[in-house]
Design a protein that fits this description.
- The structure is a single chain.
- The protein is an alpha+beta fold.
- The protein has one domain: Double-stranded beta-helix (4-Layer Sandwich), CATH 3.60.130.10.
- It contains six helices and 16 strands.
- Strands 1, 2, 3, 4, 5, 6, 14 and 16 form an eight-stranded mixed β-sheet that branches. Strands 13-7-15 form a three-stranded antiparallel β-sheet.
- Strand 10 and strand 11 form a beta hairpin.
- It is globular.
- It binds succinic acid.
Length: about 280
């Protein structure tokens, strides 16, 4: 098989074709690593990953973070992202990046399709490198020294959005909520590039600013960051796998397949402190 990298759009995402994720050579790993660093999310097609293969692939990138909120599978490393045909709320149906509420946010996530609706259920991604690069020099300078507070209480907590939804029962978040403060602009440890590190799912306010003061600038950044030029959209097929960078992208799970089941398996890979 010949390995091929095919960009999805100008700024975000690339497919790596001609690889078997259970048999990656060192040179294949280097191609995947470079694609991840350049485009923020790497897609693979036609893989036949068992749960053990999924875990083994994730472990090649780092330690696995066991998810505290989603239903675990029989392998605690793998969390279910599940929507049944009777449910109306999906998991991840708003722009966010995983685990920004952790003091050491996750490096990335590996999502494997297990059962897909015939239509719909795409995942959209946005490049926070592209979003940062397109800001004016003045706004870049303003954001450079700023930090922002991230939390998951309003999402996974006792009064969070999932608890009062028809996903509710699956979330055991009462005592597990956390928050953390991170730079608004990070220098990515792998690529050395600057990326915007706030997101609509979990960022509450800028450090030292009130919620009210923060809102207009956060809203500006949130709208700016999802300009179509910075995004890509992945159409899942049986055998598809997505490996995204939580520090350089946001994602959004489209909720347009009511009446059908969608089941994905997700592994989150540990990161480290952000600078
Ligand atoms: C997630 O937010 O991790 C879920 C993404 C998806 O189901 O497409």
């Amino acid at each position: 098989m010949t390995i091929e990298v095919r960009k999805m759009t100008g700024a975000c995402g690339a497919e790596v074709l001609g690889v078997d994720l259970t048999k990656l050579s060192n040179s294949d790993m280097e191609t995947v690593r470079q694609t991840y660093a350049d485009y923020g999310v790497v897609f693979f097609r036609d893989q036949q990953l068992t749960p053990q293969d999924h875990i083994a692939f994730a472990r090649r990138w780092g330690d696995i973070v066991v998810n505290k909120f989603f239903t675990p599978t029989e392998n605690p490393e793998i969390a279910e992202v599940r929507k049944e045909k009777e449910q109306t709320t999906n998991i991840g149906g708003g722009w966010h990046t995983d685990h920004s509420y952790d003091v050491e946010p996750a490096m990335g996530s590996v999502l494997v399709a297990r059962n897909l609706p015939e239509e719909g259920g795409d995942t959209l991604f946005a490049s926070m490198y592209a979003a940062y690069d397109a800001l004016s020099p003045g706004l870049k300078t303003t954001l450079e020294g700023m930090r922002a507070v991230h939390s998951n209480a309003h999402v996974f907590g006792a009064a969070g959005v999932y608890k009062s939804s028809d996903q509710g029962g699956g979330f055991k978040g009462e005592n597990l909520v956390s928050d953390a403060t991170h730079p608004v602009v990070i220098t990515h440890p792998m690529s050395g590039r600057k990326a915007l590190y706030v997101n609509p799912g979990f960022t509450l306010h800028f450090e030292g600013w009130t919620f009210q003061e923060s809102r207009p600038l956060l809203d500006y950044l949130f709208a700016h960051a999802v300009k179509p030029e910075f995004t890509c959209r992945f159409r899942w097929q049986p055998g598809s796998v997505a490996f995204w960078d939580n520090r350089a992208t946001w994602h959004y799970a489209a909720n347009d397949y009511h009446g059908h089941q969608r089941l994905m398996h997700r592994i989150t890979i540990a990161g480290g402190p952000l600078n």
